[in-house]
Write a structure and sequence with these properties.
Strand order of the largest sheet: 1-2-4-3-5-6-7-8
CATH superfamily: Alpha/Beta hydrolase fold, catalytic domain
Shape: globular
Number of helices: 8
Number of domains: 1
Strand content: 15-25%
CATH class: Alpha Beta
Distance between the termini: 34 Å
Length: about 325
């Protein structure tokens, strides 16, 4: 059985920072605790389990602290009939500096569970940890591994391995887009049973996502610094919209016109690239909504539009 249980369950968003980043972390931590306190209690789900992406140390790990250990926290829907369900990996945003778990992790997991979809909240490694040791391509490596691990454990979690998607907001949306455009078919000869499985998601959901790290096109400077540092030549390597090809899975893209943190052009560029490569997509640009709004309060119409699209592509029953 491939469960990779941690000593304790629940989502651990501990961040390992250098001294110069401690002030930023304290402010973010205060913000996150305030946000969590404002959420309805029913959003604070009790996770079934938290599992490591790798047995032992993850590739490139610089220590054994929580920030060095990428994990999935598992939220399974009520499934009395024991049927195989779709699954979605949830990548919280946070500018590759922290994980916005309450609004873009557990809240999404509850929404997905309500609609019969298993949710797996990904704690990917961050560029803010260990003096930048986990910059590109480490977070992308973690996300691809998550797709493989869910397929490996499909029977255990009662997942339909042909309906494994990925979803993310802001920087988590960038990670989602990168997983959609950079993946592999698996290695049948690998001695690691997880690596035998494909890392290509069956669909992707981009929520006010960054699709480029080019500052000329509205890239968030913080995300860019923590993902690629000062290596300007790497920008094209992480410009998801430039990497789209005809093997990219179908995408649901939503953004708001008034988002100034990650401008709407990021969504338009991705949609144009998908159209040019004949990849099915659904694009929704709404007028109102701040960056980082998550599900919205009251719940935003994008959630209804997403469910309709999931039915349209056969992930959910009509």
């Amino acid at each position: 059985m491939d469960r990779r249980k941690l000593p304790r369950t629940g989502y651990d968003s501990t961040i390992c920072l250098s001294g110069r980043n401690q002030g930023v972390y304290r402010k973010m931590k205060k913000f996150l605790f305030s946000l969590a306190a404002c959420l309805p209690a029913f959003l604070l789900l009790s996770a079934a389990e938290t599992v490591r992406l790798w047995d032992g140390d993850a590739p490139g790990a610089k220590g054994k602290r929580p920030c060095d250990i990428p994990t999935l926290t598992v939220y399974l829907p009520d499934n009395p009939a024991g049927k195989r369900t779709p699954a979605v990996i949830v990548c919280p945003g946070g500018a590759y500096s922290f994980h916005a778990v309450p609004s873009e992790g557990t809240a999404y997991a509850k929404f997905l569970n309500e609609n019969g979809i298993a949710a797996f909240v990904l704690k990917y490694r961050l560029g803010s940890s260990n003096n930048g040791a986990y910059r590109y391509p480490v977070p992308q490596m973690d996300a691809r591994r998550a797709v493989k691990l869910i397929r490996k454990n499909a029977a255990l979690w009662k997942i339909d391995s042909r309906k494994v998607g990925i979803m993310g907001s802001s920087a988590g949306g960038h990670l989602t887009a990168m997983t959609a455009v950079q993946n592999d078919n698996g290695d049948p000869k690998s001695t690691d049973p997880v690596e035998k499985f494909s890392s290509r998601p069956d669909f992707a959901i981009l929520c006010y996502a960054q699709t480029s790290m080019d500052s000329r096109y509205g890239a968030c400077a913080g995300s860019k610094a923590l993902l690629i540092g000062n290596h300007a030549g790497t920008e094209n390597d992480v410009a998801a919209y430039k990497l789209v090809d005809d093997m990219t899975p179908p995408c649901f893209i939503w953004h708001t016109f008034e988002d100034q943190t990650v401008p709407v052009r990021n969504a338009l560029d991705m949609a144009n690239a998908l159209e040019a490569n004949m990849v099915p997509f659904s694009l929704h640009i709404y007028h109102n909504g701040r960056h980082g709004m998550g599900l919205g309060n009251p719940r935003h119409i994008w959630t209804s539009d997403l469910l309709l699209w999931l039915k349209e592509i056969g992930v959910l029953r009509k």
